[in-house]
Amino acid sequence: MPKNFSRKAYECWIKSNIHRFKYSPMISESYKNCFVLRFEGLSTKLSCVVRNGGEVIVIIHNDKEEDWDIVTEFDVHEHRSKNGQYFCSWCLEKKHYPSRMALWEEHIFEALLEWINDISFETIFCIRKYPGHSSWDVKFIKTKEDYKYVKDIDSCFPLVIEK
Description:
alpha+beta; five-stranded antiparallel beta sheet; 10 strands
């Protein structure tokens, strides 16, 4: 299957930047219109879907490996200016980039790197369940005493599973 721009851009960027990740990303699934990342040392309940159109979502899964909810997004709505520079039309401040690759690197890959690297052993992911829909909440629980402040929890688990 031919690789699309998002996959080529990711593979080019990751070669020079994988050492910057606290939890190394790996492609776990690949499809025509997207690919899925998992992260070494993090729970398999967490994944990142990178779609060709610039939609990048981090998803939390339940115990049945079903998509539960979107945790965060790193989307880009790319456009090209008359002078050939790229920008994200969703951003209030229109920063211009010399290439499509440069736009994706900053908007998606660098943002994802920063978000993943903020995860620590203290990061406990708690899923709150409300009648009719699901919702998520990240709690930084450091002691058992802190659990009493987390209410209406369907499940709780650490994101870091290995040192």
